[in-house]
């Protein structure tokens, strides 16, 4: 946790962001779980809270942390599919995805050839 960001947040703000990131629920549900007023007023207050710069900064930090953790799980899944999927098509697609992410994507080449004569006739009379 970034200490400078955390010092600016109230306990409710921290709980709101942590609930949103951990549960992936609606703002209204996160507001209720974080101790904001129930119903529409809690959702409105939480929505305004999430627009504050220091709260947004903490939200982005928490999302980056969560994506980092999830990325290791996703990479493991793709690696497992590349080696152990029953379908050869799934194995191929997983292998291509791993190679692409490792920087070994094939070069996209497109070649356009135009053959033939182009004639324009303008009759002004």
Question: What's this, in brief?
Answer:
This protein is an all-alpha fold.
Question: How would you describe this protein?
Answer:
The protein has one domain (3-101). The longest helix is centred in the middle third of the chain and has 32 residues, at 53-84. The chain contains six helices and no strands. 67% of the residues lie in helices and 0% in strands. The mean pLDDT is 88. By secondary structure, the protein is mainly α. The termini are far apart.
Give the helices and strands, then pairings:
Blueprint: H1 3-8, H2 11-23, H3 27-34, H4 40-50, H5 53-84, H6 88-101
Helix pairs in contact: 2-3, 2-5, 3-4, 5-6
Strands, count:
0
Low-pLDDT parts are none
Order of helices and strands: HHHHHH
Largest sheet: none
Mean pLDDT: 88
Q: How far is the N terminus from the C terminus?
A: 80 Å
**How much helix is in the residues?**
55-70%
Rg calc: 26 Å
Estimate what percentage of residues fall within beta strands.
under 5%
Which key phrases capture this entry?
67% helix; mainly alpha; 125 residues
